[in-house]
Design a protein that fits this description.
Elements: H1 7-31, H2 36-65, H3 71-93, H4 95-130
Helix pairs in contact: 1-2, 2-4, 3-4
Length: 136
């Protein structure tokens, strides 16, 4: 579904509830026999990191869907698939290196979202300023 423009955005909106929930459950399970406070902290960290990474992905996908041609959407989707497969394969043999790569990708994504957001806000302000009629 992520290769079809706008269907992927619909799927991302559904995943906004699913991914953080699964991340929180995984964090809780990783806590093991920890006391309830630590288990809750693990769950919050898992859910929070899943939500943050999902919002980065969904935001960039929404921006890409604004492109009028279909090649960009499919190319980005295939790039995501290859990147995920590469990081998972790396995690099997070199987990600390995979953590570093995943962290770098996450920070890069956050920076990209911030830059895109500022670009959109700047364009919106210019559009609003240009279209405001003056009254005599």
């Amino acid at each position: 579904t992520d290769k079809i423009p706008y269907v992927d955005s619909l799927w991302d909106s559904v995943s906004t509830l699913i991914r953080p929930t699964i991340g929180a459950m995984l964090g809780y399970l990783l806590a093991g026999d920890a006391d309830s406070v630590n288990a809750a902290l693990y769950a919050a960290a898992g859910g929070g990191s899943a939500l943050a990474s999902h919002l980065v992905k969904a935001s960039t996908r929404l921006a890409i869907n604004a492109s009028p041609e279909p090649v960009t959407n499919v190319t980005v989707s295939l790039g995501e698939d290859v990147t995920v497969a590469g990081v998972v394969a790396l995690a099997l043999y070199h987990p600390w290196l995979a953590l570093g790569v995943a962290s770098l990708l996450f920070v890069t994504g956050v920076v990209l979202v911030v830059v895109l957001f500022r670009f959109v806000v700047r364009g919106w302000r210019r559009w609003k300023a240009r279209g405001t009629p003056t009254r005599a």
